[in-house]
Amino acid sequence: MDTMEALLTRRSIRQYEDKPVPEEMVRQILEAAMMAPSALNAQTWQFIVFNERERLDAIAEVHPYVKMALQVPVGVLVCGDLTKEKFPGYWVQDCSAAMENLLLAAHALGLGSVWTGIYPMEERMTAYRAIAGLPEHIIPFGFAPIGWPAQQPKSPSRFQAERVHYNAFQE
């Protein structure tokens, strides 16, 4: 799959087959995530890979939009590491780029995933901190369930010419 195809066909997957994901594929996905750009190349991310059924089930209980964690064999928690920041506050952008790379890599490998938000919702952050045993300087940012898709959602182009402005914003 080439880059443009991956970008234009990736969709959020919320239904999965009951099938394991090989460890090597998880490693490839994480390698792609870690190739994301970051402010001053600080790479302010940490990744928690969940592959224990008990923890994935616990995640489904604490996050209202992650019930699909009950179906997947693996999930990745993308976290910001405040000790690695060179520009305070940019960890959010760094982790966003890493999450998008993760989603695209999963799709390119034939897997499905979905970005489920955690930060800045305190209740969700507290719950993920407890499940993953995170220290205070590690901020849970987003969670991506990963598995073999049991659905193939399609959508038309989302390009909207009226949202493109050249040189200055125009009403």
Automatic annotation (TrEMBL):
Keyword Flavoprotein: yes
Listed GO MF terms: FMN reductase [NAD(P)H] activity
InterPro entries (UniProt xref): Nitroreductase, Nitroreductase-like, Nitroreductase/BluB
Keyword list, A-Z: Flavoprotein, FMN, Oxidoreductase
SUPFAM superfamilies noted in UniProt: FMN-dependent nitroreductase-like (SSF55469)
Keyword hit for Nucleus: no
Pfam families: Nitroreductase
Enzyme Commission number(s) of this protein: 1.5.1.39
Domain Nitroreductase: start-end pairs: 8-64, 73-148
Top EC class of this enzyme: oxidoreductase
Protein name listed in UniProt: FMN reductase [NAD(P)H]
